[in-house]
Amino acid sequence: MKKNIQSTIYVLFVIVTFIALAKSFMVYQNPFNVYENPLVWLALIGFVAVIVLKEVVNVMATRKAEELQNEKLGITPEPEDLWLKNLLKSWTKAKAIEEENEIILDHNYDGIKELDNSLPPWWLYMFYATIIFGAIYLVRYHVLGADNQQMEYEKELAKARIEINKFKATAPNLITADNVELLTSEADLKRGKAVFNLNCASCHLADGGGSIGPNLTDEYWILGGGIKNVFNTVSNGGRSGKGMVAWNKTLKSEDIAKVASYVLSLQGTTPEKAKAPEGEKWVAE
Fold this sequence. Notes:
- It contains nine helices and four strands; from the N terminus they run αααββααααβααβ.
- The protein has 285 residues and is mainly alpha-helical.
- It folds into three domains: 2-73; 116-147; 186-281, Cytochrome c-like domain (Cytochrome Bc1 Complex, Chain D, domain 2, Orthogonal Bundle), CATH 1.10.760.
- Helix 6 crosses helix 9 (253-265).
């Protein structure tokens, strides 16, 4: 009677859960979205867990019945993990405790005796492999002079530079310090001003008068004026250790060209609190 009740509950649970899952798949737009429908995942996990648990219980019950039947008939089956024990034994060559008296040496130190056990084959083979590896390494790198890590790194770096230069030469929209031009259109300067206010005004002030960074409205420049020098400074950064960070990993080259053009448009303006000139007076060639 108890078994019938358990089976009935199991069947009802499977049917109801299956119907609920099928209904959710038809109704919800994203039924597998954990954040929107966590109950779907709970029902699905519970559904699978109950089925797996039921099968595990059935297998355990079947094995228990077989064991009782074999015990009743006086049958002693071989252990299921016999192949595993044989494999481990072949890879360790270990003697059973009952057989250790066969490998006891005559050495006796205050009652402490020594066993003449063989090394495990897996350990022995790994030791031989290290010897072979060491010999190959010695010949390859110290006799034949193959490339070491430093040489391989330098070769890959040289290849990367060639690929970068090739890309720069063929990329149609890539702006560099060599091909940048001063932009004067209202749209470009407006975009440059927005980039400047967002990233540069904290050090140079919104009017370019200078704070932590130098004044951008005078004729004096630390790293040179002109569109090419300003573009290069914004892109690659200022003086090492105390200058501006490189913005080429944050800003696109188009935006760097626009912000550099906007900086040059500030030349000759009169900021409210202008910082004293820094660097040298720059005159275009």
